[in-house]
């Protein structure tokens, strides 16, 4: 916001609001403020239902009604495409496909603190705030959090990766190191399956989406929002056509693999995380499907009709972009959870003969500023 002192950056303030604030910090000519009071609230302001709001660094949009959250995400993407990607398509940014605003995450990475309780990183710090319930999680995970943090002397773990599998409604937890009090933990939580380094297979379970069965584990990445799984697959499918070969870069445990095989004679999945590749090979051993354990930067890119990209939030490296440009793939399907990285990479593709043909936006992360983008990028003839 603009003030007599200059531009002040304030969290949790909406356009048009009159507020009371104080200058908290000045660094490199930038003023950082702290909101003290809202005098005239926006019509889009709501009361955050979470007791940790403002302390936990997660749900930064919880004070905004959900419909406005979605339009803000459209605006963020439109601005990034124009400012970073040099695309002016602000008038044709599609609507955001929504999901339930709460209880929409089946995976959680909890951090440990002194005394054994678990939680999330406190906003703006390196310390952990213990969390007994999170409104984004299903009840099964929240029951575990309450139970664990209610123990008189819970054992310390640096991290816990938690998964609630909707297919069997069970909770699986991967611990950061082998427990010294294993028998005590197993007795305290008889309905929960635990694993740690060296016995990851203990928490592998089957998860069904559409007609396909995946092998998942809290020790590996999987899309967090089950309400959007079919929507992601359906939108990617709308960009597919029968072909010979498809490359699935950053393939994980094979989320797109059975869909891509439906449209091609050969699918090559490329993934650097070894255990993800192990599970993908077990789940999809069919002929015509190949999984390679290698970083994308070290992959020798073959000829293919379509390449599917689902990189980390940081986007594509220069090496990967150079390979794509060198191979001149006709069709690129780019899935991204970062509008800035997506726009940056799209600019490079645009400058080298590609054009954004279609765009989909899904809200996998309500109450946050993040969004999921699916872009169809075509090489110009």
Describe this structure in words.
An eight-stranded mixed beta sheet has the order 5-19-20-18-17-14-15-16, with helices on both faces. It has a six-stranded mixed beta sheet with strand order 8-7-6-9-10-11, covered by helices on one side. It has a four-stranded mixed beta sheet with strand order 1-2-4-3, with no helix packed on it. It contains eight helices and 20 strands. Helix 1 (66-83) runs parallel beside helix 8. The chain has 381 residues and is α/β, with parallel strands linked by helices. The protein folds into three domains: 2-45, no CATH class; 70-100 and 225-379, 3-Layer(aba) Sandwich (Rossmann fold); 107-206, OB fold (Dihydrolipoamide Acetyltransferase, E2P).
From the spread of the alpha carbons, the general shape counts as globular
How many distinct domains? 3
Distance from N terminus to C terminus (CA atoms, Å) equals: 46 Å
Question: Which residues form runs of ≥5 with pLDDT under 50?
Answer: none
> Can you tell me the CATH topology of the largest domain?
Rossmann fold
State the total count of DSSP E strands.
20
Number of helices: 8
Q: Oligomer, anyone?
A: single chain
Assign the structural class, choosing from mainly alpha, mainly beta, alpha/beta, alpha+beta, or little secondary structure: alpha/beta
Helical content (DSSP H or I, runs of 4+): 10-25%
């Amino acid at each position: 916001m603009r003030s007599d002192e200059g531009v002040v950056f304030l969290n949790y303030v909406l356009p048009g609001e009159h507020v009371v604030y104080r200058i908290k910090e000045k660094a490199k000519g930038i003023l950082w403020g702290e909101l003290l009071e809202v005098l005239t609230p926006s019509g889009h302001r709501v009361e955050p239902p979470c007791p940790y709001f403002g302390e936990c660094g997660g749900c930064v949009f919880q004070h905004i009604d959900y419909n406005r959250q979605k339009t803000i995400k459209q605006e963020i993407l439109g601005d990034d495409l124009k400012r970073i990607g040099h695309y002016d398509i602000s008038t044709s940014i599609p609507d955001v496909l929504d999901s339930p605003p709460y209880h929409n995450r089946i995976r959680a990475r909890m951090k440990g603190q002194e005394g054994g309780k678990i939680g999330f990183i406190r906003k703006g710090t390196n310390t952990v705030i213990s969390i007994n319930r999170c409104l984004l999680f299903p009840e099964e995970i929240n029951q575990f959090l309450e139970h664990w943090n209610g123990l008189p002397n819970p054992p310390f773990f640096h991290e816990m990766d938690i998964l609630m599998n909707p297919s069997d409604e069970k909770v699986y937890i991967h611990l950061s190191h082998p427990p010294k009090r294993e028998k005590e933990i197993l007795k305290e939580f008889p309905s929960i399956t635990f694993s740690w380094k060296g016995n990851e297979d203990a928490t592998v379970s089957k998860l069904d989406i559409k007609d396909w069965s995946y092998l998942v584990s809290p020790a590996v990445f999987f899309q967090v929002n089950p309400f959007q799984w079919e929507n992601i697959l359906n939108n990617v499918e709308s960009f597919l056509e029968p072909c010979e070969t498809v490359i699935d870069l950053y393939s994980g445990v094979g989320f797109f693999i059975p869909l891509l095989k439906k449209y091609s004679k050969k699918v090559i999945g490329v993934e650097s995380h070894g255990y993800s590749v192990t599970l993908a090979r077990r789940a999809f051993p069919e002929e015509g499907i190949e999984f390679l354990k290698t970083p994308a930067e070290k992959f020798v890119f073959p000829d293919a009709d379509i390449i599917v990209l689902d990189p980390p939030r940081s986007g594509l490296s220069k090496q990967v972009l150079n390979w794509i440009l060198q191979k001149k793939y006709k069709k690129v399907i780019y899935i991204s959870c970062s509008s800035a990285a997506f726009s940056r990479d799209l600019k490079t593709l645009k400058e080298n003969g590609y054009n954004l043909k279609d765009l989909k936006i899904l809200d996998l992360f309500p109450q946050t500023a993040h969004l999921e983008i699916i872009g169809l990028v075509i090489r110009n003839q």
